[in-house]
Design goal:
This protein has 901 residues and is mainly β. It folds into five domains: 116 residues, Glycosyl hydrolase domain, family 39 (Immunoglobulin-like); 289 residues, Alpha-Beta Barrel (TIM Barrel); 139 residues, Galactose-binding domain-like (Jelly Rolls), CATH 2.60.120.260; 123 residues, Galactose-binding domain-like (Jelly Rolls), CATH 2.60.120.260; 151 residues, Galactose-binding domain-like (Jelly Rolls), CATH 2.60.120. It is 14% helix and 37% strand. The strands form eleven sheets. An eleven-stranded mixed beta sheet has the order 3-2-19-16-4-13-14-15-20-17-18. The longest helix is centred in the N-terminal third of the chain and has 25 residues. The N terminus is likely disordered. This is CBM6 domain-containing protein. It comes from Kribbella soli. Keywords: Signal.
Amino acid sequence: MPRDSRPKHHRPRPAAAATALVSALALTIGAVTAQPSTAAATTETLAVDFSQTTGDFRGGASGTLYGLGDDGVPSQPVLNGAHVTNTSQKPPDGAQHPNGDVLDVEKSFFAGAGKDLLVYVPDMYPDWPYNKGKRPGDDNNDGVWDYLPIIRQVAETIATTSAHPKDIVFVPFNEPEGPWYPVGDWANQKDLFLADWSAAYDAIQAVYAEHGLGHAKIGGPGWYAWHQQPSADLLAYGKAHNQLPDLFIWHELGTQNLATFRGNYTQYEALLTSLGLPRIPVNITEFGMLRDMGTPGQLVQWMSMFEDAKVDAETAYWNYSGNLSDNSSRNNGGNGGWWMFKWYGDLAGTKTVKVTPPRLNAVDTLQGMAAVDTVNKKATVLFGGGSQDVNLSLTGLDPRRFGNTVDVTVRADRLNGAEGASLQPPVVLSERVAVSNGQLQLTVPNSDRYSAYQVQITPAIAARQPVSTDLVSSVEAENTTVSNATVYYEDPTREWSFMASNSRDVGSFNQAASSATWSVTAPHSGSYRLSILAGTNGVPGKHALFVDGVFAKMIDYSAGLHWTYRGTTDVPLTLSAGTHTLSVRGSKDGTTRLPGLDIVLDRFDLYDNGAGENAVYPAVDARLAGGAKLAYSQAGTSGYAALSGPGTATVFAATAATGYYDITTHFATTKAHRRLKLTVNGRPVVLPEVDAVGSWAATARVYLPQGINELTVSAPAGDVLLGDVATSRGAAQLAAEADPANVRRVEAESLTLAGTAAVESLPAATGSNGSADVAGVVHDVIDVGKGSGNTITMARPQGFGAGQYQLVFSAANADKSDPINYNPQVISRFLDVSEAGGSTVRGAFRHNYSWNSFWDKTIPLTLVTGTGALTIGNPTGPAPHLDTVTLAKFAAGRATISAVR
């Protein structure tokens, strides 16, 4: 139905959703079964035939409408990892939203996987429906359609200002059959629309011709749904007038579109054939509902469908710009949806193959896609959406490529909330098995429709990843002992709600006696990490954590968009071996309600952190470029990436905290005097040269931002085989952070303030998660910016001379413009960091819901003087509120290298 007849943004009541973890996997080869399936009573079969290729992997189904907000929002590693090839944004100076300007985001977009940058031209209007729901007329009585000057203005600005004008796609109409040309009256509206299409088309082409830019790409018509006859009329008209769209656009938004899209696309292809037209690429510039965003098991259904048709598609914009349509988290993080995007993007350069689901074109069912990389001898299956065990029936595994023995690795990607900080999805199966006649049967126990799975199959490799064992306990909030709170059901069929783990959560947690209590068993004495999936309603909040009936510590939750816009909060714990009772409570003393205690609780995950935070990113998971490829000829290095010259291997490492991590590259050399080149988020890290042939581990201690980090390895001199890149954070790295020779952390109010910059006090009653004094009061600095004199200045600590640094701000930005239409009109704020005697670097701070809630934002600095002070401000606009400022050396100490025996 027309978009003006449904809400574009919806704030649901507190509710819940849940994801059952995969606890076991059964592997069946012929008649041999490793273990029986116990997760579900029945099994569904997903058949994959790797011998039947269905074309080159297109990779366009991870597009996003207004997924980019500003330069740096989202961060470049998040954008690159998601492999976004297409996005639709607003025109320069468009009034529809305060950010998302095509010229502001093109730099970061094209620095990644970006190909088509679409511009919604009518977003020059501030309102929805556009122009008060009426087609513009000639209000000036000058004989010119009032929309044409707007179109020309957009085309002129892009033609003269954009660095990539030939890669911009102009979309002159967005859902035109709704307010401007009612589809129910198409017989009377057709001629008017087609005449307007011509006028818009010619206006854009004329501007590009004036500037010698050749043909301007134009997309349309932009229907809110598929319409066969209007589409036929436009295609026939476009052919006759040489005004065909370069991209054919319509939207697939509702739940039932998972069942109807293929039929719509078949009709579209039939129209092209009947009119004698060549293939015109399709972009579904809006797909999916709130419930689909950030939910791996939903996204994989949409992506599989669009990849099968080889069309591009963009997740719909239901909330705010700059977070990949709710598929990234915080300033630099990835949620479960982001990892689905990342897995999908990892298939670039492959051939897709035939996949047969249990039911095609069925809503909310098991679906999947698969691909084969013949160069790197790797087969991949991505699937999800069902709630039963999955029997993967794999055929066509060519023994000339894979041999008769393969390694199989399966990872699980869970729903983790829109603001959930998801680390590397865990390995839930890792087996070496025999293949018979190219056939393999895998049974994946599954009862979670919200999860997606990645299956990778390669010849036997030297370092197959083990099954992850760090998750000790995962308990749904509704399965705890709940007091003075309510369990809510989040109906997964309700389109305008975000999913909750297991479709339930605990809300109305608003009394001093409110509590959720459960038991865990610690396998040994040591350190643990409790990760709480929860939602706050626009403000930060606090709960008290009790262990075995004794208060242990306060839980600080940052603010969220609303109760069901969930995120994760991590709490470090020290537990002795054995069974313990954990309890989250609304009061520390049983009487006084904690500030902001009304928080929706969804899931409690307890991780073993005794060995620290560790992750391994094997070469078989890396994105290889520049001629790098996997090598299998030697048993000791089978599955390593052969690097030489321009060849690179890139992994996207997820970190739980901002701070020092050891980055270790494991590699082998076939000649002496070789060196790996490592770049971390685009910055070089010097690794030692090895002087002999052998196997090596090179380690650098680097200060990383929380979230996604892009690590790229190369070997310009060649003759190097990369096994993996590993990250680790434990006692040694924490000690490096505590060393004042490496890191200086100060309260922002302790710095030198100038102009309007002022200190603000946030009493304990605000529930702020900022750095508090002994009375629980948080002090932050406000009113920085909006003039060159309104600054704070940080003197350079002794020993912090010229070199590479990270400057980390704990900052708050809740800025919004007036609610001119359906979306939260959030605004990014910026900080400029200027070194006296050096340069100025700008950092972007996305909206984080509350002025009392603080997130880390890391800005890389290259300082060129020995003592030049750092002045922090924003001469052109307001800056975020600042709680703490941390200056850290990018690398602590020198990188080391050791032989691996």
